[in-house]
Amino acid sequence: MSQSFNQSIITEFRANGGKVGGPFEGSDLLLLTTTGATSGKPHTVPLGCVRDGGLMLVVGSNLGAPDHPDWYRNLLAHPQVRVEFGTETFDAIAVPAEGEHRDRLFTQVVDVAPGYGEYQAATSRTLPVVVLEPAEPEYVAADGENPVAVTSLADKLVQVHTWLRAQLRHVRDEAEAHLAARAAHRGPGAPPAPGLGLQVRQHCLAFCQSLGFHHTGEDAHILPTVARYHPELRPAIDRLQEEHRTIARIQNDLLALLTDIGTADPKRFLTDLERMSTELRAHLAYEEEQLIPALADVPWPPPAP
After folding, report:
1. Contact 211, 164 (CB under 8 A)
2. pTM to 2 decimals?
3. Cα–Cα distance for residue pair 237/223, rounded to 1 Å
4. Where does the signal sequence lie (predicted)?
5. CATH numbers and ranges of domains, the chain
6. b/e for 238-265, b at 16 or more Cβ within 10 A?
7. 140 has a pLDDT exceeding 80
């Protein structure tokens, strides 16, 4: 579809609460905003979608063309995406399904929208099926159920930290499950097979990119401001910034392993992930101990100027 046609659909979608006419009338449609793999700029496209329980599926059909669409290449580089569906907007992690899981989901998609089967028949490439998993940070009370209102910068800090801890656990659980499944497939006594799955890659990449963004923002804005108003915290801030550099080195090791998931050593990946877990858990706990009292009276979101 041409850029001008896409833009007309996007404009109509946003003006009418997610409803559009013409060839898309009555079908489920969403707007997917990805970050350009090369440009780093946001790109929005309208896509048909199929719901799978609480998740959404989109297919990289490109109308049966021989190459994957640009938005698919973008989300491989930057898994965190923005989704608009109806009047709802949310952040998501885009995870292409693999193997039997992909085949099952594609069959489900074709049952709802048979045209995707025709697109698959028109090309030799396997059409990617991408699962859009909501990725909003969660901040809940001690009972693990009731959401807590975020009214201060201290609340916001804990909210982001809660999400980072949860994503790190998620990546570790997925990596361990992937390694166990590959070992079981090869049989007892067989040497471990190299390689990581796309699911592990996408979640780890999203985690690393979010962590880098969080620490860069702290170094550029939050920590210098805290130091200006609370000079007694300068030793703690110096320690936090040094820990940022240590964590960044581990993060770079993980990203290097994700460059070629087909040959990556999963045991080394788990070792580096455990290093990250140890360092990050200690860092986040220390940061909360030192900064929360200073940030508790800072309103969030910031008041309008």
Report:
1. yes
2. 0.87
3. 7
4. none
5. 3-134 (2.30.110.10), 153-295 (1.20.120.520)
6. eebeebbeebeebbebbeebbeebeebe
7. no
